[in-house]
């Protein structure tokens, strides 16, 4: 049987489409919804659903937990044209109806909402290079990895269009979620659990994978990126390595977070060049301007410099 060009093209596009595989490590059911708050499926605690949980991917779309609009969104866009066969993806924590707010705190104050209801991680399993195609780990409402306000830049990542993503809700386990779901009672993003001085062992390693910005050698007495630096019962060093500052997650746990860029410098993962680009081109000292192609360059951790 002969296929028409249109049919063959459609089948080829389908074969190239990305796939999202969802795993629920929360202690409650994930009510997966798509754009327009269309119900997709329920994912019970401890279970995994492959093949987009049965949803058909459009050229643009999103996934979220619950039908509410003040929740974090996994957003994607598929580009399948000659020379541009990519899937773009990001996590948005922007509160709904933000206006022109210029920070997460401003958006939250303006809207009275938070734009976040469950910790999540997105890991490319096929083309992950730690640069443009990389892990996104968002475990708090003001996570620096997520879009936090409308003009926030540098948060989108992209992989080849045949990428397979492992999406994990509550990547640090059920204690990390602290019942962020609307089905539970405590505050979203509270972390870790209720036991003094304890936290899921997977948390530090999960967050460390966020940007993999660890320098080759951490000086004695200093704490590396995304590692614990404080909290009740903690007895280690509270001095973060250069470019990082110790910030509290809650009374039990603090992490070494990257410092914001100085004036005239770009944040990690922000665009720094490319054909037609007219913005700032200077990356922070710990980063380098990596050229993906003639159209796009971005600031990446210097430790990821290609050899």
Descriptive report:
The protein has 307 residues and is mainly beta. It has three domains: 173 residues, Thaumatin; 45 residues; 34 residues, no CATH class. 10% of the residues lie in helices and 30% in strands. The strands form four sheets. The protein has a six-stranded antiparallel beta sheet, with no helix packed on it. The longest helix has 12 residues. The radius of gyration is 20 Å and the shape is globular. One of its GO terms (biological process) is carbohydrate metabolic process. One of its GO terms (cellular component) is extracellular region. Keywords: Signal.
The CATH superfamily of the largest domain bears the name Thaumatin
> What proportion strand?
25-35%
The CATH architecture assignment of the largest domain turns out to be Sandwich
Radius of gyration: 20 Å
The CATH class of the largest domain is identified as Mainly Beta
Strand order of the largest sheet: 3-2-5-6-7-10
Order of helices and strands: HEEEEEEEHEEEEHHEEEEEE
Total E-strand runs: 17
Q: What is the straight-line distance between the termini?
A: 49 Å
- Total count of helical runs of at least 4 residues: 4
Mean of pLDDT: 79
Overall spatial form:
globular
Count of structural domains:
3
Domain CBM1: 221-257, 264-300
Protein name: CBM1 domain-containing protein
Organism: Saprolegnia parasitica (strain CBS 223.65)
Keywords: Signal
